[in-house]
């Protein structure tokens, strides 16, 4: 059977956004899931989101928040809001959840598609890819024709042709043969491209079609959970504006 993938990540413990995305996947006839990491961090439902993602039984790669929550790494180079939620999340999770996060691979390949949270140019360094030069460094490590990632929370397409790399705004796209693509699927739980709706991608492998989905969800409910958990107010506010 032809596979229709939902590629999603940067869920960041936002249960309302994740449930809305999975509802949309059912309507869209998704058959398989691929997760680009950062299941936890920033929002207030880490355990619920972890359970849902684990129950999907799909490939999941390690995000920087997953890594920091499940390791003893010093948080000094994290922004203070993110670090506060990392500490809070460590306190919420039970041992088997922490060990699940710590066991996630930094890269994965499934059905000929690669996954990485940030960039193949040092998957454990979590560098940001915002322009074609940074994408160029990544492409020298991308073996498969197609790779999905997240991390910046901004959906984007990078295309490599012979001798050049192009940045293309996120749009529904039929992938031509003979080129490589590095596609940022945006963020389910904390979009930062000015659109507060949850973001993910559907990839219809047989037809080589990429669709960028944006899904409304109950933002106020997610904000309320942040406030009830006494997490930084800024994290609630940014959900409403997608920044
Ligand atoms: Zn993230």
Keyphrases for this structure?
single chain; 243 residues; alpha/beta; 6-stranded mixed β-sheet; 5-stranded mixed β-sheet; 32% helix; 22% strand; globular; binds zinc ion
Structure notes:
The protein has 8 helices and 11 strands. It is of the alpha/beta class and 243 residues long. A 6-stranded mixed β-sheet has the order 3-4-5-9-6-7, covered by helices on one side. A 5-stranded mixed β-sheet has the order 2-1-10-11-8. Strand 1, helix 1 and strand 2 form a beta-alpha-beta unit. Helix 7 packs antiparallel against helix 8. The longest helix is centred in the N-terminal third of the chain and has 13 residues. It starts with a strand and ends with a helix. The relative contact order is 0.19. The mean pLDDT is 96.
Task: Explain the layout of strands and helices.
Blueprint: E1 4-8, H1 15-27, E2 32-35, H2 46-56, H3 64-69, H4 80-92, H5 95-102, E3 107-110, E4 113-116, H6 132-139, E5 146-149, E6 156-161, E7 164-169, E8 173-174, E9 180-184, E10 198-204, E11 209-215, H7 219-228, H8 233-241
Parallel strand pairs: 1-2, 4-5, 5-9
Antiparallel strand pairs: 1-10, 3-4, 6-7, 6-9, 8-11, 10-11
Helix pairs in contact: 7-8
The structure holds zinc ion (ZN).
The string of secondary-structure elements, in order, is: EHEHHHHEEHEEEEEEEHH
Give the termini separation.
39 Å
User: What share of residues is helical?
Assistant: 25-40%
- The number of strands is 11
**How does the major sheet shape up?**
6 strands, mixed
Q: Helical element count?
A: 8
What global shape is seen?
globular
Ligand set = zinc ion
Radius of gyration: 17 Å
Poorly predicted runs of 5 or more residues: none
Q: What does the average pLDDT come to?
A: 96
Q: What structural class do the secondary elements suggest?
A: alpha/beta
> Which strand order spans the largest sheet, edge to edge or round the barrel?
3-4-5-9-6-7
Strand content: 15-25%
